[in-house]
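Something for you to look into today, if you have time. What I am after is a single protein written out in full by you. I want to see for myself how the chain folds. Could you add the entry underneath, on a fresh line?
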Amino acid sequence: MTDESRFEIRDEPYDSSSAQRLIAEVQAEYVVRYGGPDDSPIDASEFAVPDGLFLVGYLDGEPVASGGLRRRGGSDVEIKRMYVVPAARRVGLSRLMLAALEDRARAMGATRVVLETGQAQPEAIRLYQTSGFQQIDGYGHYAHAPLALSFAKNLANLD
């Protein structure tokens, strides 16, 4: 695990330069893993307060992690664009980013977070499963995609 004092998570606009760099990197990774980018409809305004937000994680001042929240309706909030650059993986940053996203979702009044991932991302699947997420029926853009998996975590009454 990395020294947590070297890792800082900041709220940033979805269209900030650091966020856009990390989003471009995760999209390039999707091309390698799935043969194409994530083409789910995204509008930057979905990641703006009060119905969303975007976080960028900095390790020693360099942007290395990202994740966003957008309201799905009711008290559900969706996690999108969660990513850690390859050079910063396997030291616990994804867990720190996921915890920050869950905390921010609670602050937004969400009682559940949902997300989509894919079978070609076994490390992401393991992260979500070991963080209390349960697999659910597909939803949204990839509801019927053969490689897509959907997960949810109930945030209500959790410490």
About this structure: Residues 4-154 form a domain with the Aminopeptidase fold (CATH 3.40.630.30). The CA atoms of residues 69 and 79 lie 5 Å apart. The chain has a mean pLDDT of 94. The beta strands are 7-11, 52-59, 62-73, 76-84, 112-118, 134-136, 148-154.
